[in-house]
Amino acid sequence: MKVGQIKLVVGALVVTLLMGASPAVATEAPIIDFCAKKTSGKIRAITEGSCKTSERSLGASPIVRGETHPTELNPQFRARYEAAKAAAKKKGHNLAITSGYRSLERQEMLYQRAIKRHGSAEEASKWVLPPEKSNHPWGIAIDINYGVGGTKGKKAAAWLEKNGYQYGLCRRYENEWWHFEPMVTPGQKCPPMEPYAS
Ligand SMILES: [Zn+2]
Question: How far does residue 131's CA lie from ligand 1's centre (Å)?
Fold first, then answer.
């Protein structure tokens, strides 16, 4: 083979490699859902089809307020919680929802009670938001292990605080170790905690 021919072959090889490299990145299919195994909470991402019957669909985005108030906890939020609960169980932690969906009436009652206890609307709001602000009546907030399980219950909540992001769940406030919301896409980092609700 002459030098000119070798150059040509090498040149062609480089072009082939370059062409092969970039389209692979460009055609990577977007993730359409995250599926969690019901038994273990193990998660896998899917780019087509839907989750198996042995899995729970966790969704592929943060879960936000709907257009109208629901009458129960958001089903996909519940699926995230159940997936996390199964994974926590494997690590010896028990998770329990002590308050999830609340009607607007119940939230108002709790808020009024908090005003009496804390002395002002402003102080009360750090612990119980008024109905129009709280995410509990929107079915996208849960309180876990609050008042149950003692130190063990708190440890389980700490596990969720650390690992919840894998299921799209985040602890939201520094003053409430028990309050979680479906704030992120499963696997994404949770935003920094807010000092308290307001
Ligand atoms: Zn709460």
Answer: 12
Q: Which residue has the tokens 């602890």?
A: 171
**In the chain, how many domains are there?**
1
Please count the CA atoms within 13 angstroms of the CA of 171 that sit on its side-chain side.
19
Q: Which two tokens stand for residue 8?
A: 């040509």
155 in any annotated domain: yes
Residues at Cβ < 5 Å from ligand 1 ion? 143, 179
CA of 74 from ligand 1 middle (Å) equals 15
* Residue 165 counted as domain residue: yes
Ligand 1 midpoint to CA 168 (Å): 17
What pTM was estimated for this model as a whole?
0.85
CA dist 43 and 161 (Å) reads 18
Q: Can you give the pLDDT of all 198 residues of the chain as single tens digits?
A: 555 565 655 555 544 455 555 555 567 899 999 999 999 999 999 999 999 999 999 999 999 999 999 999 999 999 999 999 999 999 999 999 999 999 999 999 999 999 999 999 999 999 999 999 999 999 999 999 999 999 999 999 999 999 999 999 999 999 999 999 999 999 999 999 999 998
* Residue 97 belongs to some domain of the structure: yes
- Give the residue numbers spanning the domain of 39: 31-101+139-181
